[in-house]
Amino acid sequence: MKLVVLLLLLLQVSGSADSRCFCKVTGDLDDCACDVETIDGFNNEQLFPKLQTLLESDYFRFYKANLNKPCPFWTDSSHCGLRDCVVQPCSPNEVPEGIRSSSHNKYSAESNEQLSECEKTQHLGAVDVSLSDETREALLQWNKHDDEAERFCVVDDEESPDSQYVDLLLNPERFTGYRGPEDWRIWTSIYEENCFKPYTVKRPLMPGSFSSGGEERTFYSWLEGQCVEKRAFYRLISGLHASINIHLSARYLLEDSWFQKKWGHNVSEFRKRFDSELTAGEGPKRLRNLYFLYLIELRALAKALPFFQQPSFRLYTGRPEEDQKHKELLLQILQLARSFPLHFDETSLFAGDEKEAAKLKDDIRLAFLNISRIMDCVGCFKCRLWGKLQTQGLGTALKILFSERQIEALPTSSGRRPSFQLSRQEIVSLLNAFGRISTSVRELKNFRSLLAEEG
Length: 455
Known about the structure:
The protein has 455 residues and is mainly alpha-helical.
């Protein structure tokens, strides 16, 4: 707390100090037991290097998405025509055969064969395989619940002819030069229609509005009056927005000529999005929400460890030695995530009256589902790709956090089909989405150095 007070005093004394220090977010995070400094050290020195190595592996670099879905909310006529907005899909021979042949399964080929044999044995050895109408209906409802009830995001149909594999390493997230009107429209729709906010409460720096300070006070007074779950939901969306803005500022198109393209850190763009003076005090709040998002996704990775520890689970690409090596690296990362000393306590969420908690959870799940659908309205296809991946990754993290009982009940042998499952798409999006957040935290260190050089 003393450090925070000292920092505030320094900011009041010197405008030039503000230009150097606005991104040095410090201290405890609201609704958490953690502090920023602990996250910085843990991420930058321990987790980030291992995670980057894992994400370069074949299992995690290929992601299947349908980028041709029409926008479900408004007529979308502003697709980016810039060359750098284009996503280059993979040809079939570029994707490892193991991924192409088993991407629709929730487990590796080997474990599916085991389950299939087990199911045949159970069927042949059963005394009575007939089902009453009531039982059949109950099973249908159970299967529907298994697929939909815990899902926080829309998942593309992998079997659709419009779904194609994309090499994420060849289609990196960066600022392409696109500045279409859909950008503000996307985020306005997300904040105004899906974050439980009444239209009468204006969020700070809303496009087209002039902020005199009153809007900020009204907004944060409203936010603090919300239950912890709705506050957390807003902070997750704000943190995701901040992370994307950091990526765009760190990989900015600095030079575009007929003979060369140059990408790199754009300090002016970073300042425009996060400088306290240029954002009416909003920038540092956005950065704090980034750290909050980091904690949520880190906690999900830690809680998912038992799922990935199952002997039947493999990172199946068809190359056994590499697959085993990368599974061991994945388990190292998840063990490291579990060792983090100040995890977010998700038991504080949905802890009230059981009926009210269930309704609130479903409201939040449906709001996030809607946000994932909005990603099909993004005009830049490269931004659409990464928007879909990151919302699916966050949705998968939320699914994990609120599936604790199912994860604890995972079978110890391969003879019984577990009730908790993750598809390959969910696994790839979960790790890559967290990789983006981890990269954002690491890039803040780079921007701090660049701002210090300017000062």
